[in-house]
Design a protein that fits this description.
The complex is a heterodimer of chains A (511) and B (243). By secondary structure, chain A is an alpha/beta fold. In chain A, helix 2 packs across helix 14 and helix 20 packs antiparallel against helix 22. In chain A, the strands form 3 sheets. In chain A, strands 7-6-8-5-9 form a 5-stranded mixed β-sheet. Chain B is globular, with a radius of gyration of 18 Å. The longest helix of chain B has 18 residues. Chain B is 40% helix and 26% strand. In chain B, a hairpin with a 2-residue loop joins strand 4 and strand 5. Chain B is α/β, with parallel strands linked by helices. Classes of the chains: A alpha/beta (511), B alpha/beta (243).
């Protein structure tokens, strides 16, 4: 028994260290030849501004990279602090209320001061205030006689639908509800871009808007007057790391060129070009830079063809899935063996991998940014962790399901524990183990689409962008290949089962 | 060859086997018999260390069975269970040779030994490359016996080896087994619940009940001079079944 345990422990230790080494190599590989990395959050205006900053720095001769459409404020801010991003656009109100949670800050100068203590600098405001507002369909607002946010108090039957961030931010719905004493109970969270569709179809009556949203005019919406002055200012600013000046000495001057160059009307027009006219953010940003900001015109980054795009997503997706799944197999099978050998330890192992499985993926990704940054590695670690449960559980069950007479026969023969494991137990459990791996593979293929939230690419990228631009075609560009990949994986596993499950065991099923 | 000295077994304080002494001479055949739950399988499994005794010691060829020695000792004790206990993922040949290959025996020797054993147990050689599920119950038992005999052990332990077979095949195999036991001259311990099978094989029969030996003796002694009412009842019950 002791030898078995020692053997399991050794195998486990080896697999874990292999996995860790693999991740370190990957991280190191991603860290070489570092371009200037600009981030943006997953909404159209953010992506356009990200393209503007990227193009501006590139125009000065630097290699740049735009890590677009990160999953939220927390992702972008933490990535900036961790040095995974060098710069990204944000808003003064968001910084004060959400990130710094400092109501005492009332001026941009104070904000700049506080940011400095985090090693972050703030370029002069771009010139527009993209504040939150509450919007309704104009015809409905008129019919009900609603002009201001206070007027909502008289209409408790109205249904609110807010973006998930707004639902939870102190400067969002909770604060607004308290400030105006709004009685509405029927309030739901949904994606900002889907909210417009909900308004149009009448499923919701009011939603949160950004004042520069292209849809306000497009959908004929009425912006309710913030008569209590609840919403703070949301001046658009570019944040960048204080140490960026070591690599781009003229960064202050470069970003200074943007100061006051975009007013609300200009930003709304750019948003409309992206969302209504479906122009690429890169083209819109290039046009803006060429319209007076830069002396030398820049070209928009060449747009990939659909095939090229899908191939790239496939490459990124496969890389995420294969590396995380391989590491999971190497770690989970020994863990499953150990759990079967040592029931007490097994209960702990199964409990832990079970709990890991229940951690919401977004939360797991947020935890990982300070350790692993953004991009491929944290996504792979998250996928690795999620893949453990099915494999550990099936290995454990497969070994325990071996009939007692067979286990006794192996013992009575006098085989060594290692030979018993390799020659008898693992082959007998092979079908169960393979089923666990198959389950993990399918789950990983699906879950890997979330990797796009932290800039890992893959099929999630077109899905996120498609949701943002309300473009079903783009969503399908990610969803269909992901489904096809899952089917292909199913077929490959059917073949693998024929090859890897011993023929003598397949007889049982063929009969 | 194999001695049990004051060997006892209990589970969670509940005795399954009362302390007993047993001396198995080299070349003898001993049959353990009794109703279900009498402790006969427990006793057999104590002999090759599948179960550790709660008290006393098992001595094999002059050496006590200890965790350090048990694996080497099992190489000298063949073990056959009901329906063979063959590994379904290995062919008959691989089942038979698994241990020898694991111990690094010469492949030429292994091949020769397999042919020899196939002839001994009368298994047609084309059956060797089939999987257990492709063999009949009787053939599976013959392969199980080959596996137990592969390293030419001193002791052969059999737990109801014929229990799952049809009467015709059973009779065939009984005859073959007895011929094999007598030709090989091994120390054999066989568990059965059938008194006539016991008489057919055994020099010595141990009739057990509730973890105790009620009587040791030959088949004839059990019939003629039952030690107590239980032995008499057991013998009579089996007699009636046979008619």
């Amino acid at each position: 028994m002791n030898t078995i345990t020692a053997w399991c422990r050794e195998t486990l230790r080896r697999s874990v260290s292999t996995g860790v080494a693999m991740l370190l190599v990957l991280t190191a590989w991603e860290a070489t030849a570092q371009p200037i990395r600009v981030g943006s959050k997953a909404f159209t205006e953010g992506v356009i501004l990200g393209e503007v900053v990227t193009g501006l720095i590139a125009s000065a001769g630097y290699t740049t990279q735009h890590r677009a459409s990160l999953g939220g404020t927390t992702f972008a801010w933490n990535a900036l602090l961790a040095g995974e991003l060098d710069a990204y656009p944000d808003y003064s109100g968001t910084l004060i209320q959400e990130i710094l949670d400092a109501d005492s800050i009332s001026t941009l100068a104070e904000l700049e001061q506080v940011l400095t203590t985090h090693g972050v600098r703030m370029a002069p405001p771009l010139g527009f205030n993209n504040t939150y507002a509450i919007g309704m369909r104009a015809d409905r607002a008129e019919a009900l006689g609603i002009r201001t946010v206070s007027d909502l108090r008289q209409h408790t039957e109205l249904v609110g639908g807010f973006s998930t961030e707004f639902m939870n931010r102190s400067d969002g719905w909770p604060g607004l509800r308290d400030a105006y004493n709004l009685p509405h109970r029927n309030v739901r969270g949904l994606d900002h871009d889907l909210a417009y569709r909900g308004l149009e179809s009448g499923h919701i009556d009011f939603t949160d808007l950004y004042s520069t949203d292209a849809e306000v005019a497009y959908y004929g919406l009425h912006t309710l007057i913030d008569d209590a002055g609840f919403f703070p200012e949301y001046q658009a600013v570019i944040l960048y790391r204080a140490d960026l000046v070591d690599r781009v000495p003229e960064i202050d001057a470069l970003l200074g060129r943007l100061a006051g160059q975009i007013d609300e009307a200009a930003m709304t027009r750019m948003n409309a070009r992206a969302k209504i006219d479906r122009e690429s953010e890169g083209q819109i940003a290039a046009d803006f830079l060429n319209g007076g900001i830069l002396d030398e015109p820049v070209a928009a980054v060449a747009v990939e063809s659909r095939t090229q795009r899908i191939l790239r997503y496939t490459r990124e997706h496969l890389r995420l899935v294969l590396i995380s799944l391989t590491a999971a197999i190497l770690a989970a099978i020994p863990l499953g063996i150990l759990s079967a050998r040592r029931p007490n330890l097994g209960a702990v192992i199964l409990g832990v991998v079970g709990v890991i499985y229940t951690i919401p993926s977004l939360a797991l990704l947020v935890f990982m940014i300070p350790i692993l940054g953004i991009g491929g590695p944290p996504a792979m670690v998250a996928l690795f962790l999620y893949s453990l449960l099915p494999i550990v559980r099936n290995t454990h069950a497969g070994l325990l399901d071996i009939p007692l007479p067979l286990r006794e026969s192996a013992e009575a023969l006098g085989l060594s524990p290692a030979a018993t494991l390799w020659q008898v137990e693992l082959p007998l459990a092979s079908r169960a183990i393979l089923t666990g791996v198959k389950t993990s593979a399918i789950i990983t293929i699906g879950t890997a689409t979330l990797g796009a939230l932290i800039g890992a690419g893959g099929y999630g990228q077109p899905i996120l962008t498609g949701i943002r631009l309300d473009d079903v075609g783009l969503i399908l560009e990610g969803a269909i290949p992901a489904a096809v990949l899952a089917l292909v994986a199913q077929m490959l596993f059917a073949v693998a089962e024929r090859v890897m499950v011993p023929r003598g065991l397949q007889l049982q099923r063929d009969r | 060859m194999l001695s049990l000295r004051q060997v006892a077994k209990s589970y969670d304080g509940i005795p399954a086997l009362a302390p007993l002494d047993l001396e198995l001479e080299r070349g003898s055949t001993t049959v353990l018999i009794g109703p279900s739950g009498c402790g006969k399988s427990t006793l057999l499994r104590l002999m090759n260390g599948l179960i550790a005794p709660s008290g006393g010691s098992v001595v094999f060829d002059g050496q006590p069975l200890t965790p350090a020695l048990v694996r080497a000792m099992r190489h000298r004790m063949g073990y056959v269970i009901q329906s063979g206990g063959l590994f379904p993922h290995l062919s008959a040949r691989d089942n038979v040779t698994l241990l020898a290959r694991h111990l690094g025996r010469d492949t030429g020797w292994i091949a020769g030994r397999v042919d020899e054993l196939a002839a001994l147990v009368q298994l047609p050689s084309d059956r060797l490359d089939r999987f257990p599920l492709e063999l009949s119950g009787g053939q599976q038992q013959r392969v199980g016996l080959m596996r137990a005999l592969m390293l030419d052990p001193d002791v052969l332990l059999l737990d109801e080896p014929l229990g799952a077979l049809d009467p015709m095949i059973r009779a065939d195999l009984q005859n073959d087994l007895r011929a094999i036991f007598s030709s090989l001259h091994k120390t054999v311990v066989l568990v059965t619940h059938d008194l006539y099978e016991a008489g057919f094989f055994g020099d010595t029969i141990l009739l057990m009940k509730n973890g105790r030996i009620e009587q040791r003796g030959t088949f004839q002694e059990l019939l003629d001079t039952p030690a107590n009412d239980f032995v008499r009842a057991f013998v009579n019950a089996q007699r009636q079944v046979v008619g």
